[in-house]
Amino acid sequence: MPLFMVAYAIALSGLPEMIESASIILERHNATLAGSGVETLVLIPGFGTEQSAWRHVVHAFKDRCRILSFDLAGIGPANQIHYDHVRYGTLDAYARDVVAVLSALKVERCVCVGHSVAGMVVALASIKAPHLFRKLVLLGASACYRNIGGYRGGFERADIDGLVEGAARDYLRWTAQFGQMVVSAPVEDPTVREFVATLRAMRPDMALSLLLTVLNSDLRSRLPEVTVPAVVLQTREDSAVTREAAEYLRDHLAGSVFEVLDASGHLPHISAPGTVIDALNRHLR
Which UniProt keywords apply (predicted)? Predict the structure, then answer.
């Protein structure tokens, strides 16, 4: 459903001063609605992907949920024009955008699924506006990707430097290598091909800037501020997020639920959608 229609609905709601800002917010993030139901399910893609990554989930839940999908600035190729290196130097800016989209649509007490970095973005958004969320689902999320002290996030400083240098030297070659690593599959795998294609549709400078923001983020100290119930979903093998990082979320998000999915790789909603759909069915109750 094109959301310019929602902007007209806002106009009719007695809040004409919000018409322009709501319209701009929804257009900026390519917000789309599908399905119907009492429950609102919000789907936010992670680094290097866009809304289409959720297509299997949308199809599975459209008959029972109102589904809102939108893109975050610079996260994938669909929303590059609105990316700003300074504004999006921290993940808090993305969290403000999530709150803005949900507020523009008057969504409250939704179930919000964030993949990868978007998982931590929705966690930050829930700190800012907990009334907007009933439950958070963090798919392949990590509060910190680096190895710091006794914490094992998976990446040493040299690993991060190597990723950035490789991308700066030959972006096309890097996307193929990074895609295989993240998906944990050979280059001819359909999920690898899809992920590599979306990476290559991004501006290299934008992808590099965002990658640095993500890999250098450390949100471990913010986890106690999250009061919305959370479900942490982690594949059994994920080269981007260690099992320890996922368990750290479980241990530091009060009342959270942790489940290891019978799938591998960092993009199970594309590579093993049935497994993710089954897990969401269990946890949306």
Answer: Hydrolase, Plasmid
- 175 CA to centre of own chain: 19
239 given a catalytic annotation? no
To the query of whether residue 71 is one of the catalytic residues in this protein, the response is no
Query: How many angstroms separate the first and last alpha carbons of the chain?
Result: 26
116 as an active site residue: the answer is yes
- Which of 29, 115, 266, 269 does the annotation list as catalytic? 266
Q: What phi and psi, each to the nearest 5 degrees, are found at residue 230? A: -130, 145
Q: Is the pLDDT of residue 7 over 80?
A: no
Domain coordinates in residue numbering, the chain: 4-283
Query: For residues 180 and 207, what is the distance between their CA atoms, to the nearest angstrom?
Result: 17
> Please, what CATH class does the domain formed by 4-283 belong to?
alpha beta
Kindly report, residue by residue over 148-170, the tens digit of the pLDDT.
999 999 999 999 999 989 999 99
| Residue of 238, 256, 269, 271 marked catalytic | 238
